[in-house]
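Appendix B. Extra example for self-study. Work through it before the problem class; the solution is given directly after the inputs so you can check yourself.
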Amino acid sequence: MRNRGRPVLGAIAGLFFGLFVALDLVFFKAIASGSPLLVILPVLGLVVGIAGALAASIGRAGGPPQP
Amino acid sequence: MRRLGGLVGLTVLAVLLIATPAAAVFTTNTIGCAGSAVITDGATTYPANADDTVIKLPKQGSAAYQGSISTVTHNQSGAVKLKVGVVSIPMGSWSGKNDSNLSSSAGVKKLPSALGSVPPGKYDLTGYHKGDEGMCAGKATVEIGGSPLSSPAALGSLGLTALTGFGLLAAFKAKAAAAVAVAAP
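Solution. Structure tokens for the complete assembly:
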């Protein structure tokens, strides 16, 4: 048995999570609609989504096999 | 623990970027443009000056405006637009030859009805005036009032944030998969 994360799901979910967090910040008047965060947060979400899913696979795949 | 550190780092970055002050600024002003407006929705009055950090804007009402230029322009045109995402809402436009050499203008303009469907939030307002003698252009941050929880768009965005957040957590959770084993003969 080996364990692996879901990098594709991480990429898609991260991208849209970043986008909707940025939109929430606009609607709650924390940032303006022209803020660079509207571009930065989706890209950051994409990177964090992929990296987090890959880290999950690396972190759990290296364990010794169970008897 | 490492994940918590990453979240703290992201939060600090976000706060630093959010803290960048927004203000009305002229990006170009070769003809000495100046102006102000008093916006009202019938019950509340919102003054707006060119150097305000944030201009408050009701969803409906009218604006009593006045603008001036120190260098008279001819064959002139101009416009003011509100940027809502990829959409621009025209707030006003003008053009003319200015044969009478006017250096100022004033009047009352009704706010566009499209403002009523814009969710509460902060948006960028851009405008310009240009003629044969030069031009000025500027931008300002405007705040459209109201509770975000009363806006379908904001509620939808909150719901999708939660949904994609769960998707992200699911991606971070490792799943068991059978390793492909090559059986020895």
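Self-check: The interface with chain A takes residues 3, 6, 10, 14, 17-18, 20, 22, 83-85, 119-124, 139, 141, 143, 148, 151, 153-154, 157-158, 160-161, 164-165, 167-168, 170-179 of chain B (CB under 8 Å). If your reasoning did not lead you there, revisit section 3.
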